[in-house]
Amino acid sequence: xxxxxxxNMLVTGSNRGIGLELVKQLAERTGAEAHxxxxxxxxxxxxxxxxxxLTTQHCGKITVIKLDTSDEDSISxxxxxxxxxxxxxxxNLLINNAAINKPAAPAPLSATGKKDMMDVYETNVxxxxxxxxxxxxLLQRAAERFSPEDDKGDKMSCRRSAIINISTVISSMQKxxxxxxxxxxxxxxxxxxxxxxxxxxxxxxxRKHNILVxxxxxxxxxxxxxxxxxxxxxxxxxxxxxxxxxxxxxxxxGMLMDWQGNTIPW
Length: 266
Known about the structure:
Elements: E1 8-11, H1 17-29, E2 35-40, H2 49-57, E3 62-66, H3 72-86, E4 93-96, H4 114-145, E5 162-166, H5 176-179, H6 186-206, E6 212-217, H7 234-247, E7 256-258
Parallel strand pairs: 1-2, 1-4, 2-3, 4-5, 5-6, 6-7
Helix pairs in contact: 1-7, 3-4, 4-6
């Protein structure tokens, strides 16, 4: 199976879990001209060992970038580093995957404090906000260089210029009565609901630049955050996400979808 994506692509939180698998699948399944910028907090630390091994396996296809999404100076430095490398080509795809969950699931109200709420919001909402804002000139550059003739008239696609915000089904207010008992997770739920609104705002704001913005729920995945009971592997989730991403067009900007392409109610 081929993923119909190309150009310069950036994934945050790429040293483990879904982020690492997204980088792996992008490196394996995109064309020779595609390049993946894999971002993590500590590229030289033990937590990035798997990512460094991946860059060796795909020599010249992956560039590791130091990025702490809770630190504005770190974001600025990462943007500068990527800008110097992509040049006039710009950035075609920004996947905001990095996120935290505090306290540990099920995170009931009794165990949750103000610092938990603020820390999670800073990483899960403010980080993607600043990344989109700072990378906007590079996303615009990519959008301006792309001709939509091969996309059946659609002005927006992830081959051209797009932001994908990794959200969750438990951000859905409509579905909260169905999901709340499983995991209360006040900070995570509310931060991802805010991320959904950020997605909607950016979709409206960036439409004039022909930049697509969509939120995607990756499924319940067996990761450090998802736990061992989760039914999905990181490989199945990442492949599903990339299949959906490959098919997105004008009508999907500003939507919340799952890894199988189904729309999730707000």
